Amino acid sequence: MSNVDVYWYEIRNSLYMNVCNRCTLRCQFCPKTQGCNQVHQYDLSLGKQPSANEVIESLPDLLGYKEVVFCGYGEPTLRLKVLVEIARYCKKFGIKTRLNTDGLGNLVHKRDIVPELAEVIDSVSISLNAQNAELYGKHCKPQLKSAYYGVHQFIRRAVNYFNEVRVTAIEGLDGVDINECKEIAEDYGAIFVPRYLDKVG
Ligand code: SF4
C-alpha cells in the first residue's frame, strides 16, 4: 500500500478526482464500507482532505483527457468549495466536467447547491439506488434524515440545470427493481443507467 495520497487517477481517457473520502451513507454494497479503498490499481485512502491548490498543483496536462470526473470513495459535494475551485480550473482548458454524487448535497449544506455546481459542472450522475425509501435505508444506511427524498429533490433540480443528468441504481441488489428506478429517473427527465457491483468508471 502506498503512503502517498492519490488525488486523481485515470480510467480510460478520463481523469477522476479523489477530493473527499467521507460520505453520509454507509452503503452495504460499497467496498469502502467493507474496509477496501481500492479502485483498479489505485488506493483512494486519503491521509488528509486535500486543498484545491494541492490537487491543482498535482494535476497532469489536462489537454489529453476527454473528461474530468469528481468521484472517489467519498461524496465530492461534502467539499463543495474545493470541488468548485478545481472544476473551474479544469474548465479553463475546455475540458468536460462530470460529478458523480449521492444527491445529498442540498441536505448536507441546507441550501440549493445545484446552480453553483452547474456553473462549472457539465453533467451529473446521481445514485438513486432504490425505488423506495425503505429499500434505500436498507442498502445505503443514510445518516441524514429524509435522505431518500433529498435525492429525489436533487434530481428534480438537476434536470433544470445540467446538460445531462444520469440516475443510477445497481442491478442485483436485494429487492431493488431496476425497471421502477428507471421509471422514476425518466419521469424526472433524466437518463437511467444501471450499474453493476464492483464496477467503477
Ligand atoms: S456514498 Fe459512495 S463512497 Fe459512500 S458508502 Fe455509498 S457508495 Fe460508498
Automatic annotation (TrEMBL):
Residue intervals of the Radical SAM core domain: 9-201
CDD domains xrefs: Radical_SAM
Transmembrane domains' residue ranges: none
Highest taxon above the source species: Bacteria
A biological-process GO annotation: glucose metabolic process
Keyword Isomerase in record: no
Keyword 4Fe-4S: yes
UniProt xrefs under Pfam families: Radical_SAM (PF04055)
NCBIfam families noted in UniProt: tatD_link_rSAM
Annotated protein name in UniProt: Radical SAM domain protein
Species of origin: Kangiella sediminilitoris
Organism classification: Bacteria, Pseudomonadati, Pseudomonadota, Gammaproteobacteria, Kangiellales
